[in-house]
Here is the input.
Amino acid sequence: MNRTRLWKMKLIGHQVAMDFKLYKTFYPQITDFYVYYSLGDTGIMPGVVRSGKDVYEQVHNNPDF
Here is the structure.
């Protein structure tokens, strides 16, 4: 994957994370959710873009899940 495409993916991931943050504001009863993007092994949560492994562990190791 070239640098330009990787940069665009990160930018889109960041925008999606900010959109999720807004969604979470309007629906506070939904506490944890994420989208996994396999091509970049990236997890996107409200306000956060991380590795897929880190996001999975944060959500699924939560006792309230």
Q: What stands out?
A: The longest helix spans residues 3-26. The mean pLDDT is 86. The two ends are 35 Å apart (CA to CA). The helical segments are 3-26, 52-60.
